[in-house]
């Protein structure tokens, strides 16, 4: 397996029930794969009990960095901070709720190579409540159609990306729409994407910050605005 240089980061908002195990499995996996790596947690204005956990993580594993937002900037804001802080050749990220197994980073690393710019995961089976599966499927097809994306799974946040991609791809979204924006810009710039199947698990802790009934109208409104700017007006987001 080709040795890679990888900056790993996880956005964290009140993920006190999952972040400790994610860090442990990440360090074990990175060492197993022989990666040249760093690991950063992007805390997006979490309350005190999550901050206490992050302090404990840093005491246990001093090599883990924590980048803190004093105020919540949204999922997109957390991802943008992670991308900006990355220094290695590749960037790997996934969500802090452990709905993906970070040990499956091995699958992404195996698919990375000189002819690939993005290794994109796709869910083998989605394990969520029925309403989230329905909402997610509708969102997936709407985004694919609206932005012309050629992906099996638009909203699978389990990605390994060359850092140089962000020399051309500038992201602006602060919400979960950042993934639609990012993958649209990656495709438009001709970057080479390969897709790898990964497992998806039921949420063990916390609630979705993006897909819930109260936010559907806001997501639809913001998505239509992004579509008008990027597709109708041809602007860069």
Describe the structure.
The protein has 237 residues and is of the alpha/beta class. It has a single domain, classed as Alpha-Beta Complex (Spore Coat Polysaccharide Biosynthesis Protein SpsA, Chain A), CATH 3.90.550. Helices cover 41% and strands 19% of the residues.
Précis, in short:
By secondary structure, this protein is of the alpha/beta class.
Task: Throw out a few tags for this protein.
seven-stranded mixed beta sheet, alpha/beta, Spore Coat Polysaccharide Biosynthesis Protein SpsA, Chain A, 7 strands, 19% strand, 41% helix
How much beta, percentage-wise?
A: 15-25%
* Shape designation: globular
Computed structural class = alpha/beta
Order of helices and strands: EHEHEHEHEHEHEH
DSSP E strands, number: 7
The average pLDDT value, as a whole number, equals 91
Strand order of the largest sheet: 3-2-1-4-6-5-7
Which SSEs are present, and which pair or pack?
Layout: E1 5-12, H1 19-33, E2 36-44, H2 48-60, E3 64-69, H3 74-85, E4 90-94, H4 105-111, E5 118-123, H5 130-147, E6 158-162, H6 178-188, E7 193-198, H7 213-232
Parallel strand pairs: 1-2, 1-4, 2-3, 5-7
Antiparallel strand pairs: 4-6, 5-6
